[in-house]
Structure formats: structure tokens, C-alpha cells
Design a protein that fits this description.
With about 525 residues, this protein is of the alpha/beta class. It has 17 helices and 21 strands. Among the domains are: about 120 residues, no CATH class; about 110 residues, GMP Synthetase, Chain A, domain 3 (2-Layer Sandwich). Strands 1, 6, 7, 8, 9, 10, 11, 12, 13, 14, 15, 16 and 17 form a 13-stranded mixed β-sheet that branches. Strands 20-19-18-21 form a four-stranded mixed β-sheet. A two-stranded antiparallel sheet has the order 2-3. The structure holds zinc ion (ZN). Zinc ion (ZN) binds next to helix 13.
Length: about 525
Amino acid sequence: MGETFDYLKVFAGLPFAMRRFLQRPLTLDDAKRVVCERIQRREQNFLRSVEKNIYEYPRSPYLALLQLAGCELGDVRALVKDRGVEGTLRVLREAGVYITFEEFKGRKPLVRNGKTISIQPRDFDNPFAPRHFMVESGGSTGSGTNVGANLDYLAENAAHLILLLDTHQVRGIPTAVGVPILPGGGISFILQRSYLREATQRWYSLIGWRDTKRWLKYDLATLYILFWSNVFGGGVPMPTTIQPTEADKIARWMYEMLQREGRCLLFTSASLALRTCIAAEQAGLDLTGATVRVGGEPVTAAKVAAMERVGVRVFSGYGMVEAGGIGLGCAQPLGADDVHLSSDTFALITHPHRVESIGMTVPAFNLTTLMDTAPKVMLNFQSDDYGIVEERRCGCPLEAYGFTTHLREIRSYSKMLGEAVTLIGNEMLRILEDVLPARFGGTPLDYQLLEAEDEQGLTRLYLVIHPRIEIADEQQVIDAMLDGMRASSPTADAARAMWQHAQTIRIKRAEPQITARGKFSPLRKE
Ligand SMILES: [Zn+2]
């Protein structure tokens, strides 16, 4: 009942909020001024957010952590004066004031100093931020965490988008955005473009209508937002839903725009961008003149090299549904995923984190929101990512706006297992298609390596074997697979050592799954 009422309230308020949002566009000069002011007022903004969203909000999990650390608001103020924002965050981190990814998602209880603090994922919501629509993180499956998006926050962050587009000289050119419809968070990019009066010609979504669990609610919400944004001149195109195998549609649209205008922009995830470029290559389409902004998943040098083969220019973005855009692609990058931290709205420190599943310690990102409009309040939120954080002079325009902190080689530590599979894909195929059928019987269609989350949300690898194959000792199959990896490349052998150590692989007796379109893939992700 409460949820339905909230939902209706959100619906009723949207037209007014949308009108306000689209009334006055943000210009490039506005954006430069806003960012400059925010960088100057960074410490005050941080303190205001801590005061309002944490100390004045009894349900805040951070308040419990700060109290446990014996830290009053006056102490935080004194720390900031003494050591600045990052220095304060490091002191707090050492004192146990942080939240891990699993705690944030409600997958693990919050325990500090032997004391369990009772929390719900919604306790991280900003109590004072309006909710204009709902998105979900990990939204492709509809089982993620709810995040209330608000247009005020989108407007504040649009300053970053216009500076980014200007830096890469892709303003005012034909643009396609490849992001999922709701509950995916990508609609925010499209609305921000509307706010900046940057037209979006095409919207491609890999989530189809009626694809998600609560499709009725989300499909209606998508159409409702689209309707009201267009009433007030937003110019949002109707989403075109496509399958991953239909990326050639995007490639053809880009090719057409290049013929007509000589330039175009594709704003999408790293994997959909790669699929588009591969489709272009296979169709013999030269995409020279096109720019691709990739984000949402690790952007590796190999992926960028494969995209550049069809002539596109690539730059990166870094963000998360819960926080919006965090990193802006550098125009003089050191590596494929080099981004400038949006340091006017975020602070980021790293903390050594031991990843038990692979026996490695990584510099984990701890993110803090500085704006009091952020939909989720973050104070040393140890997201699932790690990477290099450094102060560097690159000479690109983003540096001149005051963004001097760079993030690069960003990876997700809970997905490391899966990435290892991608890295050794071909060798793994040989094992699944040749080695195992030769030794235990059956055909290549009887073995599949499935990457899935277990009941605790940890990534696991399952070797799925068709029940018709008779196996006396399951461990023998695992050993045969690991032996096959040992005999392959050094990379495969390193992955083997990691998996063996962590006992990552489990056997699952079931029929290997095919995709909705009837395709069989020996390596599958759930
Ligand atoms: Zn730069």
C-alpha cells in the first residue's frame, strides 16, 4: 500500500518537475561557472551534506558508524579544517566509517567492533531529495536496488556532460544513445541531453518492452517520462528495442549519419559499442568520423583497439546508477579508461581490500557524495570497483576546469572471475568442446561454463553438464578442466591457479541453456 501511494505521488509530481527542469537550459558558460564554484566550495558542501543527510537523519547508517567511532559533527568540522576532505575521509575510514558494496545492497549485515547495526538498503536514501522516477542498479534483471532519481540532481550533474561533450567536440552532432529503458538508469543521460538542448536522434535499448519482472510499472513509467519530457520540448525519441545480435542496426544508422553529416556520436556501454563496431566491420562499413563514448563496464585496451579498427574515436566514462556520472573521459588519456574524477561533486580515496575469492589485495574505491541532492548518500562507500587514483597533468580542457584527479584501470573485484573467463575464452572453448567430450563422452553441446551469482551474491563459475553424461566422480571433470588450463597459455594457467585455490568451480547437472533466440554458447553469463 505504502509503495503504491509513493508510486502515485511520484507520478503526480513528475509533470511539474519536468516543466521546471526543461524550462531553462544550461549553457557551456553556466557549466564552467557552476563547476568552478563547486570546486571552491567543496569543503562547505561536504560538511553541509554530512550535517543535513547524516547528523540530522537518525536512520542514517553512517550516523551509527560515526557514533561508534566517537565522532561528533564538531569533530568532522575540525578534521576538514585541518586535513581537507580527503584527509578527513581517510581518518574516518581507519575509524571504521565506511560501507561495503554488500552492506549497501543489504546482502550482508553491518557489523563493526563486534556490534551489529540493523539497516535496510533504503536507509542510504537521501531523506530530503525528491523522487521523480525510480531506477534500479543492476537493473537489467529487475532484481537490483531501487534508486530514486531526481531531476534536480540530473540538472546539477548536466554541467559535467556539457563540459565532456565540448572537450571531445561532439556537441550538436547526430547522436544515438544505447542504454536500457527503465528500470535501467540510462534514461538519465537522455534527459540530461534534453536539458542541455542536445538532440538525441536514436535511443536503442537492449531491454525490451515486457522484458523485466515488473514490466508494466516500468514500461508505463518510461512512456510517462517520455511523454512529459516531450510536452515540454525534450525531444526524446521513442526507444528502439534490439537484441545484442542486432547491433548492425546501430552501425547502419551511424554509417548513414556519417554519409549525411560527416560526424556522429554513440553514447553506450563498452560491450554494445564493441558489438556495434564488430557488426560494422562484418558489414564492411567504415565508421571514420564517428565518436563512441563507452562506460558501464571495464573498458580494456583490447576492446578499444577492436573498435578503432572501424575508424571510430573512443572515449570513456565512469559512473554508477546510485551516484550518476563520476568520471569524465580524458582527451589525452593514459590508457583506454582514463577519466577525470568529477571532484566538485565527489571525493574518492582508495583502501586496501583483500578479495578472498582470488587471494589478492586491491586498492578499493571509497566514494563520497558532496552534493546534498545525491539520491543515495555515500560516505566512504566502498563500491565494487578498484583501480589507480592519481593527480596528473594531462593538458586536456577538463583539467583546466579543476578536475585534476584521474582514475584509470578501473575493474570490478566481484567480477574478476568472469573477466578471467573472457580473457581465456578461446582456450576455454577448446576445453569445453574438445577435451571434456573426448574424455567423458557426449558432444560440445553437453558442456557449458556458466557464470552466475550464488545465494550470497558472490560470482561463481558452474560447469554445467548434461544429465545424460554419466560421471562417476565430479572432481575428475573439474581436474580435467584445470589440467587443460594448465596446458594452455600462461594466462590460462594463472587463472587455473586462482580458481583452484579458491575452489571456484562447481559442477551443476542440468541441460546446458540456450539463449531466448535459440543459440548455444559454451560460455554463458546469468
Ligand atoms: Zn584530461
